[in-house]
Fold:
Amino acid sequence: MTAPIIPVPAGLQVHASAAPFVLSVSSRILATDAAASVAGYLAGILRPSTGYPLPMVSPVDGNVAGPSDIALHLDLADSLELGDEGYRLDTSEAGATITAAGPAGLFYGVQSLRQLFPPSLEKRSVQSAPWQAVAATITDRPRFAWRGAMLDVARHFFDVAAVTRFVDEIVLFKLNVLHLHLTDDQGWRISIPGRPELTGIGASTAVGGGPGGFYTEEDYARIVAYAAERFVTVVPEIDVPGHTNAALSAYPEINADRRARDPYTGIDVGFSSLDVHADATWQFLDDVFRSVAAQTPGPYLHIGGDESLSTPPEQFPGFISRATALVAAHGKTPIAWHEAGRSGDLVPGTIGQYWGYLTPQDHADELATSFVEQGGSLILSPADVAYLDITYDETTPIGQAWAGGPTSVRAAYEWEPAEILPHVREEQILGVEAPLWTETVASAADIDYLVFPRLAAVAEIAWSARAGTAGRDWEDFADRLEAWYPRFLALGIGAYREGEPYPSRASGLSDGTL
Ligand code: TNX
Structure:
């Protein structure tokens, strides 16, 4: 395999008999000011392992790209063909050029270019040359606008370093959304000014009784900025009205009986609910949504709405209607899990997130379809193929085994988003997202093991053309994935590999709670 790029590009020609592009000590990166940040990102990838200086120079100053240079070229005229996120990449003995209509396209071109070099490029210490990239012509753009990964930081807390590392990992596969599940029964992980007990009490623990933790406003801003530099939109989720024990432990007045709950360290779901009629609850939600909206530059705010099994069913739709309106009043587009489709009065544009199965059960398809009937769109996270916390096989030492699991890498790869919901058209599908719930996930190594390589499989579904086009089938993907394993290793990503044991047992799970 000469160009084992994941996700497979829309158009890829490898000129195997032509001379390759070769990076050398005199290579430069050519970029105008508008492309300078992507150029800096590229230099940050290339410099440590090559040891080359790779100066960034501007063509505006009269610099002309030579055969060992990489040129980043912005050209608005390409927007018709390439869209906002597409790119063209040419590598040959005459040089390497990435062309795009905007910086995001250049960034994705960089993700493809790095995959044309040997895996040792990804190491952070100087490795030996030659640094050759096969001669190729790539023209590429994504199928779906929403290509997401969700990280549950509520069941176990992950600090800023772990989250920014996760961002670096997901962008390898051209994902552009990081959904942070910030609140749940076991923890409240974002600071809300004026509501100190949310983090004072609500963040004090985690599944298994660990120390918990939360993001200060500054921490959260660092995550958002780090993601934005990598063209990733952070979507904060405040899960209501169920999954709220942490909030209920912090503020008694939002409980139906006005009594604060104890912090919770188990893994049950469906036992908690806000008092959806209390004025105190709406005051609380107004404070929280206002603050989260203000802390989040992206256009979305996710309100959860899943598994609200302890909310009186007759009160649930009205709660959702009012909550989506409140989010809109704070200037954000609401997103909710598909159960929220029970409301027939969603604020216009509300986005649904489907977590049912490929073969929908319990009316999950009707609930999801309700969002599009009300003018919204859908994100697809089918649990039996896109849930990253499900075990791979019977031997997987972490993860859960519901949702039709185990879920093999092949199962995570072989599904078609447009064939799940019969009454939903492709244009109504915003995209695809793979969630990692973290009841059994306590470390960065645990994250890597459950997420990779299945997230790479889901990323190909989100980015690449429908199955049936060149390279877009399991056999081809499996070959490219095989070629990827040395790259995972070089990147320090402890990916699962069929037949190989988990290298180290998860830390922090030894207290027998699970
Ligand atoms: C269901 S699916 C949940 C989460 C759990 C997960 C475990 C959904 C929207 N909610 O609360 O963490 O299952 O796999």
